Amino acid sequence: MNGQVCVCGKVAEYTDNLRFNRYKIDGWRCKNCGEEFYNPEKAEKILILNKLKKMKYRVKLTRVRSNLILRIPKQVSDAINLKKGGYLEFTLNNDDEIILRPATSN
Ligand SMILES: [Zn+2]
Question: Which residues have CB under 8 Å from 25's CB, separation 6+?
C-alpha cells in the first residue's frame, strides 16, 4: 500500500494496526502529526455493524422435514460474512435465549 498525503503535508504510512470503534482496522498513520486515515471500505463495514447491533429482528421459522429453519436477514449475513453451507455454533442459556455465533471451524 502506498503512503497517503496527510493534512499536515507529510506522507502518512500504511499500517494494519489502527483501532476504529473497538475494531482493528488498517489504514495510514502520519508520523508527523499522528493523524490516522482508515481503510474506507473497512470503516464503512464497521459502521454498518454498529448500526446492526442496535437492531432487533423478528424472523419467521419455516420447516424442512423435522427441522426448523431460521432465516438470517441478508444485511446481517453480508455484514458478518455468513455463507450458505457455513456453520454456526448454537447454545441455549439459562433464560432460554438462543445464542448463535459463527463457528470458528467446521
Ligand atoms: Zn500529518
Answer: 18, 19, 38, 39, 42, 43, 46
Å from CA of 5 to ligand 1 middle: 8
Going from the C-alpha of 30 to that of each of 13, 33, 45, 79, the distances in angstroms are 6, 6, 23, 29
Query: Which pTM value belongs to this model?
Result: 0.68
User: From the CA of 20, how far away is ligand 1's center (Å)?
Assistant: 18
- Written as one string, the DSSP assignment of 37-52 is EE-HHHHHHHHHHHHH
What confidence tens digit (pLDDT) does each residue in 69-96 have? 999 999 999 988 899 999 999 999 999 9
How far are the Cα atoms of 14, 20, 37, 71, 75 from residue 4, in angstroms, in the given order? 8, 18, 8, 42, 31
Query: How much distance in Å is there from the Cα of 39 to the middle of ligand 1?
Result: 16
Written as nine digits, the cell of 11 is: 506522507
Ligand 1 centroid to Cα of residue 55, in Å, is: 37
